Amino acid sequence: MGTKRALITGVTGQDGAYLSKLLLDQGYEVHGLLRRSASADVIDARLKWIGVAGKITLHDGNLTDLSGLIRVIQEVRPHEVYNLAAQSFVKSSWQQPLLTGNVTGMGAANMLEAVRIAAPESRFYQASSSEMYGLIQEPIQSETTPFYPRSPYAAAKLYAHWMTVNYRESFGFHASSGILFNHESPLRGIEFVTRKITDGVARIKLGMQDKLALGNLDATRDWGHARDYVKAMWLMLQQDTPDDYVVATGRTTPVREFCELAFAHVGLKMENHVVVDERYLRPAEVDVLHGNPAKAKQKLGWVAETSLEQLVAEMVEADLVRLKRQEHL
Ligand code: NAP
Ligand code: G4F
User: Fold this and answer.
1) Would the CB of 161 count as within 6 Å of ligand 1?
2) Staple partner for 47: which of 53, 56, 70, 324, CB 3.0–4.6 Å?
3) Quick one: which ligand is closest to 46's CA?
4) What is the pLDDT of residues 153-198, one digit of tens each?
C-alpha cells in the first residue's frame, strides 16, 4: 500500500492535535474536518502549538451535516477514520442536551452512514468514554462492566458506542470503540477541571489572581496523558479484528489531590487559594471512575507511559510559559 490517508473529525481539539502529530510522524497523509468559525485566528491554535498546522488538509464540514460528510469522505478516500468530534464538556450537556445528542450521538451515526455510503472499507474509530459507566456498577471498570450514563453527554456517547458496535456486527465494518478514561495535557480545554486548576495555579503563582473557584473536590478520576491515549486509538485500527477497549492508567485520584499536586509544584498550598463554588456542581455527578486497562495491554501492547505527577508538572509548566508570553489557548 502507498501512503495511508487518515480523516480525523475533531482535529482542532486536544486529541485531534496529538493524533495528527502521531499519524504525520508515521508518514500518514492527514485530513481533518473543520467546523466553520467566525474566529478564524484561533481555530488551529492547538495544531500550531503542537507544530502540525499547515501539514494537515482541512475540509469544511460539520458532524450534523450528512451530505457534507459524504462529500468529504468521497474526496479523501481515507483508509482510517477517527471520529473524535463531539460536544465533549459534560457540564454543558445539561444546558444543551439536544445539541449534545445531535452532535455527540447522531453525529457519530452520520459518520458511520457516510463511511457506509462512501468508503465502507475504511477502518473506523469511535471516541467512546468512561463517562458511560456513570453511576458505576463495578468498583473497577472494564469492557464487561454494565453502563449507567449520568448526563445527556453520556447518554449520547452510549448511543454512538452501540451504533459503532452495531455497524461492526451488521455490515462487517472494521469499527472499534475506545472507552477512554479522562486524559489531559497542556492542550486540554480550559473548562475541564485539570486545566482549570493548572491555569489557575500558574495565574496565582504569577500574581495575576489569588483565588480559584472549583466544584466537587471529592470526585475521583483515572487521569492519563492524551499523548499516550492517541497511540491506543491508532493501535486499535492496526489490528486484524475490530474490538472495544478500555484505555486507562488503572490509578484513580480525587480532584483535591490533583489540586494539591499542582499547587505544590509551584511551592504553594491549595487551602490558601481554593474556594468551593456551587455553580460548578452538577445535577448528577459521576463520583468515581477507575479503569482496568488489562485488555489493551494484552491485545494492543499498550500501557500508559506518563505518571500523574509528570502530567501535572507538564501542564503547570506549560501554563506558566503561556501566561508569561500572553498566549491564549
Ligand atoms: P475537545 O478538545 O473538546 O475537541 C472536540 C472537537 O470536536 C473539536 O475539534 C471541535 O471543534 C469538534 N466539534 C464539536 N462539535 C462539532 C461539530 N458539530 N462538527 C464537527 N466538529 C465538531 O475533545 P477531546 O478532549 O479532544 O476529546 C476527543 C473525543 O474523545 C471527544 O469525542 C470526547 O467526547 C471523547 N473523549 C474524551 C476524553 C477526554 O478525557 N479528553 C475521554 C473520553 C472520550 P471546534 O474546535 O470547532 O470546537
Ligand atoms: O474535568 P471534567 O469536566 O471532566 P469529566 O466530566 O470527567 O469529563 C471528561 O472526561 C470524560 C471521560 O470520563 C470525557 F468523556 C468527557 O468528554 C470529558 O473529557 O470534570 C471532572 C470532575 C467532575 O466530577 C467534576 O464535577 O471534576 C469535578 N470538578 C470539580 N470542580 C470540576 C470542577 N469540573 C470542572 N469542569 N470544573 C470545576 O470547577
Assistant:
1) no
2) 53
3) 1
4) 999 999 999 999 999 999 999 999 999 999 999 999 999 999 999 9
C-alpha triplet 137, 229, 84: angle, nearest 5°: 85
Q: CA dist 284 to 98, 154, 156, 196, Å?
A: 17, 11, 16, 21
Q: Could you tell me the three cell numbers for 220? A: 475521583
| Per-residue pLDDT reduced to its tens digit, 91-107 | 999 999 999 999 999 99
- Helix, strand or coil for residue 53? coil
User: Does residue 307 sit in helix, strand or coil?
Assistant: coil
* Beta bridge pairs of residue 161: none
Report which residue type is found at 81.
V
Indicate the SS3 state at residue 306.
Answer: coil
d(CA 37, CA 72): 18
Rg (CA), the chain: 19
Q: 221: Cβ below 6 Å to ligand 1?
A: no
CA of 269 to the centre of ligand 1 (A): 33
